[in-house]
């Protein structure tokens, strides 16, 4: 399992119709992929999340010029050592952001290789699966136009219910009054049997987020995600004192060092590292242990390609409950329903839900096969 070659790919696909979340319009989906090839011909795949918001060439450049020279000739089984060496080598300029995303991609690929070498699914190598099936929630509800008309969002919620979802996350952050109207109309259409979560994508100040939480206090929300700026840890902590709605955050945080204060200061109830951004599966294990010690449940953020989805399923399978009671709610899989060809067509068997559940992959490594024809058509070697 000696690393002989590393192939880096960038992928970009323009959306047929742009959509918005609270911060900006999304006009394309993009991805940075890495293929790590060993001397015995095995391939492991990883992803650095850029999600259409960053140029995929940024992580690709780090992978090619910073990471590749340092890991050629190394054993894929040295994933923990390699993670720390890469982090320490880039510490002065790369503690957050695209550098950690690039380390994530390499780390995921090494775990994929280790699984293939041992003929075991990655969840087994992470210590075993606490669960073989994971409930999924529909995430979407992006805006294709701005205004007070909620009909398209209500119709989307009804479609998700018809598809079998019993949990959904609504994108908010378009003004407190508008957000409350959206939630009122969706709840009115769905009734009380569907579990709802909200995600403001850090649209609000502390006072605005508190107003929204108060306006939705009777909705029985599973969580309120990214209510304030991710750098405003004190805002999280103070908001937590003002509402009983569980607070979730961390998709814009990186490594165990980034999560340390967020967890130790009890700023959140649910930690949401993204496996393709926060440092890979190795970092997920670090963060999960840290969260467990601080009484915080980990529930990963997922918005990448099929590679990120598969890696996230293994991470969720291996995530312990912070409060393992008989009726405890375990982590739930974020099932992206927005337009994304690299999620649905990059692999021969994409992740799919059935009646609101997704099965943990049981194949070797991450458990997927790349569609090489699709890769050749849409990916650019970097």
Give a topology summary.
Blueprint: E1 3-20, E2 25-38, E3 43-48, H1 56-71, H2 79-94, H3 98-118, H4 122-125, E4 133-139, H5 151-162, E5 167-171, H6 176-190, E6 195-199, H7 206-215, E7 224-225, H8 233-242, E8 247-249, H9 255-264, E9 270-271, H10 280-293, E10 297-298, H11 306-317, E11 333-336, H12 341-344, E12 357-359, H13 372-378, E13 379-381
Parallel strand pairs: 4-5, 4-11, 5-6, 6-7, 7-8, 8-9, 9-10
Antiparallel strand pairs: 1-2, 1-13, 2-3, 4-12
Helix pairs in contact: 1-3, 2-3, 3-10, 5-6, 6-7, 7-8, 9-10
Gap from first CA to last CA: 24 Å
Query: Can you count the beta strands?
Result: 13
Helix percentage range:
25-40%
- The H-and-E topology, N to C, reads as EEEHHHHEHEHEHEHEHEHEHEHEHE
Q: What is the alpha-carbon Rg in Å?
A: 20 Å
Largest sheet: 9 strands, mixed
| Unreliable residue stretches | none
Strand content: 15-25%
Short description:
The chain has about 375 residues and is α/β, with parallel strands linked by helices. It contains 13 helices and 13 strands. Strands 4, 5, 6, 7, 8, 9, 10, 11 and 12 form a nine-stranded mixed β-sheet that branches.
Molecular structure report:
There is one protein chain. This protein is of the alpha/beta class and 382 residues long. 40% of the residues lie in helices and 19% in strands. It has 13 helices and 13 strands. The strands form 2 sheets. Strands 4, 5, 6, 7, 8, 9, 10, 11 and 12 form a 9-stranded mixed beta sheet that branches. Helix 2 (79-94) packs antiparallel against helix 3 and helix 6 packs parallel to helix 7 (206-215). The longest helix has 21 residues, at 98-118.
């Amino acid at each position: 399992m000696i690393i002989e070659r590393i192939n880096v790919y960038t992928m970009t696909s323009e959306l047929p119709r742009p959509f918005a979340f609270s911060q900006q319009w999304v006009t394309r989906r993009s991805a940075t992929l890495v293929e790590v090839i060993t001397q015995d011909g095995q391939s492991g795949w990883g992803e650095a999340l850029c999600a259409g918001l960053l140029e995929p060439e940024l992580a690709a450049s780090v992978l090619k010029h910073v990471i590749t020279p340092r890991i050629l000739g190394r054993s894929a089984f040295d994933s923990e050592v390699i993670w720390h060496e890469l982090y320490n080598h880039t510490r002065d300029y790369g503690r957050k952001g695209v550098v950690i995303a690039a380390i994530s991609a390499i780390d995921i690929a090494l775990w994929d290789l280790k699984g293939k070498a041992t003929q075991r699914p990655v969840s087994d190598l992470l210590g075993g699966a606490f669960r073989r099936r994971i409930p999924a929630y529909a995430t979407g509800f992006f805006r294709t136009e701005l205004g007070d008309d909620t009909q398209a969002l209500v119709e989307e919620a009804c479609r998700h219910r018809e598809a079998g979802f019993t949990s959904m996350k609504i994108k908010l952050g378009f003004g407190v009054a508008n957000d409350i109207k959206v939630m009122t109309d969706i709840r009115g259409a769905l009734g009380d049997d569907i579990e709802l979560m909200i995600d403001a994508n850090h649209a609000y100040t502390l006072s605005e987020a508190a107003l929204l939480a108060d306006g939705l206090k009777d909705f029985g929300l599973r969580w309120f995600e990214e209510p304030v700026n991710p750098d405003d840890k004190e805002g999280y902590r103070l908001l937590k004192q003002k509402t009983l709605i569980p607070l979730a955050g961390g998709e814009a945080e990186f490594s165990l060092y980034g999560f340390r204060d967020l967890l130790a200061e009890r700023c959140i109830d649910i930690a949401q590292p993204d496996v393709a951004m926060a440092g890979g599966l190795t970092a997920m294990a670090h963060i999960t242990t840290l969260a467990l010690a601080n009484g915080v449940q980990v529930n990963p953020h997922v918005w990448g390609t099929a590679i990120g989805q598969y890696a996230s399923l293994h991470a969720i399978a291996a995530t312990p409950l912070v409060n393992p009671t008989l009726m405890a709610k375990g982590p739930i899989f974020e099932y992206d329903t927005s337009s994304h060809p690299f999620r649905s067509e990059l692999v021969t068997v994409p992740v799919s839900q059935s009646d609101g559940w997704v099965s943990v992959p049981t194949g070797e490594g991450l458990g997927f096969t790349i569609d090489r024809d699709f890769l050749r058509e849409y990916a650019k070697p970097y």
